[in-house]
Structures
1.
Amino acid sequence: MAEVNGDTSLRLAMRGVRKAFGPVQALGGVDLEVCPGEVHALIGENGAGKSTLMKVLSGAHQADDGSMSLDGAIYSPSDPLDARSHGVAMIYQELTLAPHLSVLENIWLGREQCGLLGKMNRKAMRPAVEAALDRLEHPDIRPEKLVSELSTGARQLVEVARALVGEAKVLVMDEPTSSLSRKDTERLFAVVDRLRADGVSVIYISHFLEEVEEIADRFTVLRDGETAGSGVIGEVKLDRIIEMMVGRSLDEVFPQVPHERGEVVLRAQGVRGPHLLREASFELHAGEIFGVAGLVGAGRTELLRVLQGLAPVQGGTFDFVGKAGGAKSATGLLSEDRKEEGLALNLSLGENLTLGHLTPLLQGPWLSHVRRRAVTRQWVEELTVRCASPDQSIGDLSGGNQQKIAFARLLHAGVPVLLLDEPTRGVDVGSKVEIYRLMGKLAAQSKALFVVSSYLPELLGVCDRIAVMHRGVLGPARPVAECTEHGLLEEATRGVGENAAAPVSHTAFQRFQKEYHA
């Protein structure tokens, strides 16, 4: 890396950073400036270069060109341990804790203090751990407690404590709230506020722009491996930030594709299932996008799994009629858990796309890899999936492109009813718009879409009708024109009919609204 004339008013300066992996240019000359005691949001679509840039900062990758300075001095870490010794720590989205070890052992892992005989000196390490935990103010985190006994939110804070013991000057948080409840998110934000007050610089990566507006001071946007813009939070409108991210105007975040409702394809009456599903009755039509709202634990996912045949029906009935009734397989499920059960991340795009429907790929008794590649290329082109080839590992793709392949698997199977559980979870804004447009196109092709989502603006923006599930009971479906965000939240928290609770206060409504948007 080139030398740099350090600016002592900046905590971190990255200038013209470049990084290529073979023929792929991941970073094409990125600039990033972070001040002391600042929360700086790093924003961009999946594949924009955020993770690569942070891996260069943390020493996991070596830049091909460019320069970095830390508190005005040249900074060029040889590896992550070297970066930590300079005060740069990174908390990855997938936490790097050993659950079978204690909080103290995790915090000092790799840097243990030992006595003369090589035995770990817990007594010597404990004061630093206690001091770090005192700054976090979390009652459940104690030095001797096993990490396996902690909640996800508490584990996130153990990672922060590890950075504090290392006297971090720059702390990188990559999607820190993606698995947190709203309560844990608020606790994390309180910790970030204290770190800011103590002069620690926090680089905050998140797809939740509402969250960025709440916690960050300034922002930098990356697009296609280059700096697309930067500014002060509050001085730049959210629409403008989104335009920087995707490189075009997003006048229609929820693009409207004309489609008409046809005949009933699925009729459910009093369906009950295991665990949370108590009763669900509805009719789903061809050419319709039917939305289901509800709080976490209301039974929405359980309903989808019963309809897909992944959970037993314990009462009531549901029938596929018309063309759906004659199909060998009427439904296809898009799981909310893309990594664990939606995709096989160690397999290729083509294998994931075609695995559930191999008949068209057979040549006699044998599977034709030529046909598989041709089918994969067809869907990759139609859904504008960014990839190197049909043989590329799907684990190497961004979240948005992985989700498109998950959609393509259902389309390749030709199912008339699509059960979509949180279809845009974990994807960037640009990919969301493309997925919304795809959903409209599928409805225009007379597909029936049954959509579960925790993001109310999404349901209001793309659905034709919406029903709310409350404590395992699915309420009546209403045309989207008759629905409001406040009304859906009221029904989600109170229910309807004889068992409805008292009206929700304004304060409670704001709390539930934050939970949805988180």
2.
Amino acid sequence: MTNPIADFKKADVILLTGSNPTENHPAIALEMIKAIRENKTKLIVVDPREIEMMQYAEVRLRPKPGTDVVWLGGMMYVIIDEDLYDISYVADRTENFMAFKETVMQYNPEFVERVTGIPENDLKKAARLYAKAGRGSIAYAMGITQHTFGTDNVKSIANLAMLCGNVGIEGGGVNPLRGQNNVQGACDMGALPNALPGYRSVSDQKTVDKFEEVWGTKLPSKPGLAATDMWAAILEGKIKGMYIVGENPVVSDPNSKEVEAALKKLDFLVVQDIFMTETAKLANIVLPAASFAEKEGTFTNTERRVQRVRQGLDPLGDSRPDWKIICNLSEKMGMPMNYDDPEKIMEEIAGLVPIYGGIHYERLNKNSLQWPCPDWEHPGTPYLHKDRFTRGKGLFQPVEFTLSDELPNEEYPFLLSTGRVLYHYNSGTMTRKVKGLNSISPEVITEIHPLDAEKNGIADGSMVKITSRRGEIASRVRLTRKSPEGFVFVPFHFGETAVNILTNDALDPIARIPALKVCAVRVKPA
């Protein structure tokens, strides 16, 4: 997030899209609701489903899935056409505006209504509300990113925020809501195929030299594979072994039958986790890891906030903290890692990663800190790009609309989208071991519109078969108008009814994120 969670209460308007925070990010949803009730913040919600946050919204837009570039382009068309954009901000702080404008002016409201189903007047109302606000915040999540054009969706959001001068101010910003407690921290520390810690490129020889000197070993200078590209590489015989830490791709990755086939083809699979997951059951070796309550360290949350994690329990059985397991393995492989504790690792991070340069346990014992925090005296950075962008001027990027990789047809007439429910978390590794949560949400429930159910002879609470080009599952259904006609929604937490058997593994060409939000299926009574 460019801005802290607390900034939602400083916003005049929040544009929420591709996210269902009352179920997926409930703490953030509470902050948004508080801002609406106490500070009169206006809310625009854009989502194909009628999510709970729509009851708090001034404007509700329900586009067809996979048309985000079009409605975002339409909002920017209205803002430019009616001279509502921040002219001085665009002139002083951005570049490439004219090329961007030329593309945006293709998205007139009539075209947007034809493609997205959003009424022209509703689009204009949303555009005017966002543009006229003194401080506008945009919050989004995987409903925006999990498409073959997810990168284009995010570029469009950045374009809209810059167009109205909402980047680099309190109460504004472009704010992706991370799905897990330390996703941000993992990326910060180099858990990406093309980056070393601190987002420095593996192709930057000066940076590589510095890390090689400190670590005392040679490092590769070419980017590796994205996780989503590894399954094909295994099946092609290019990868023989794999080490999976805290991940359950047999349930969470698209086209999961192919994922399982790839894992079974490996010569050697190691899984490090706190429970025996569906993926761990396929491993040659399982390394039992300690949970968050059994270890020391830090998490970096969605707002770039680095927080101390303190051990409250002794690790169970033979389990160990992740850092110890990795250090032990490294030593066995001839590369000793001489860290006495996580604090020593944090000191090395501060010395190698400029954005973490001032983050030390001595300071974290008292308060959390938001990066960039380059030195001991720096207080941390609540919001990014205050006076200038990292690259200097913000770059407007023209974005052309492309269709989803897989659309409904006569054989597969429905669009399937996956997501979460309030009571479970990701692949259910932890939450589905909780008796109370299982009693509330014991099985997969598929949402389908009553009119679609009537046409297909489907009764509320009955079992259906859902079939895609990749597989088939059986699920109980709930008839609801939350989901639009022609659309079904299925949560992905349930390994015994793994919806990702169905989903499409087509990837965004830049970010390599799969198209989990749009998949063509048919639905029939079981």
3.
Amino acid sequence: MSKQLMLVPVLLFLSNQIFAQCIQGNCQNGYGTFLYKSGAKYMGDFKNGKLQGQGILYFSNGDKYIGQWNNQYREGQGKLIFKNGDVYQGTFVKNDFQNKGILEFANGDRYEGNFVKGSIEGEGMMLYADGSSYKGHWQRGLRNGQGALTRDGQVLKEGTWQDDLCMSDEEPVAIENPIAEKNLQNCNKEFCRSGRGIYRYPDGSRYIGDFKDGNPEGEGTCYYANGDKYVGQWKAHAPNGEGIYTYVSGRVMAAMWVNGNPKRRLDAIYESAETNNVAIENSQEVKIWSVIVGVSTYEHMPALRFTDDDAYRFYAFLRSPEGGALPDNQIKILVDEDATRSNIIGALKSTFLKADENDVIFFYYSGHGLAGSLIPVDYDGYNNQLMNSEITQIFSQSRAKHKVIFSDACYSGSLLAMKSPLNQMMRKYYQSFENTEGGLAFLTSSKSEEVSLEDSGLRQGIYTHYLIRGLQGEADRDRNKIVTISELFNFVKGGVRQYTGNMQTPVITGNYDPNMPVGVVR
């Protein structure tokens, strides 16, 4: 069960700055984009020519960092997304994981606790993918010191640990099966040629049902170690045939299964109701809440090249002063494998239903679209579309005064059927929300019959390219330092139509105040 931690990549490009170049914006004192010789790219704040403030770094090896910088170092709160699927979110000190943080591993394990110089060290808890958990002391990424390993509330091993081994002489406590099993064959101990029996898998999962020639096969129920449950036809140690899978989150899926994979849905997914009772965060201050979704890699749709980067660019804008300098707890970003139908609906509810009558909600989506719907990553060619009516229903439930949907997707027009100079700038931006009537504005990338285009030269969706340029200040036609929704639309529409030779026409509609602010100019 050892969990060694890979060292965080070093910013090797810093020694090669003589070969690097600023390709956009202000890379001395402001917000800009810097390209390094190694192929790494930074988008964010600069001070005296150094990385300082909020920014995103795209490593040449495929890793991404989003968060705070101090004198060229990742320092403060941030998120590091490794190419292999591991994700760390928490405190950084001089590029290292330090103090409190959360590390999610690609294999499903999750550590929450203390770090020292990039290593799991001190007190913390590891939640393993098999349903067990260890809470206690760590050293060099291994269980060392006092701690306990548990599953389903029962202690398996407890005592002093040394390099992942428990030194206690006590025997592990067996976990009782909640189902009455005394009349069933124990097929781990005897050969079950036919009839009903029980079989325990090494990870703690249990199958109860029909057997054939010594193997689980036929009608049965599998209680997975992580809390999931499957009821239906079973073969080759996996769902095969018609069956219903109930996830621990409360989500239910009935499907025709082949070798453990759903091949044809038999009914709709039922979303968990856990987000239905979200508490409103009442405050006299104006708050901006945002959900950002970007999907580039589809299994049943053509891959898109730049939609994930577009999502990170919009995230960087909202974290910047021009976008309101939103704190992490007011933004949720879902990219590629995280952008499932269930996750998107959950994020919309858990984020936008917190807003009170003074607040602002932004939903940004970049990915495939079909007439009447957006397409999450788990779309299988028939199921899991995110219907526009579902999005607008959640928006109608939110009490926010100002509501804006930015959609960069094909056929997205079918949605229309949403103390210091810097501090003074921010106060002006938030005050401008209070001075307008609000409403719901939909600013989409194309008409309902059009597709949305990407461009290799821009390395972005064309709509998102002009959207972010406009939000950062180019749309401020009256030069009052506030970008309104009407100014933004006019800028985006003009830029996109000119760039595409009138093949793509952004559209805006809704019941909104045309002076609704969406950005501020530094």
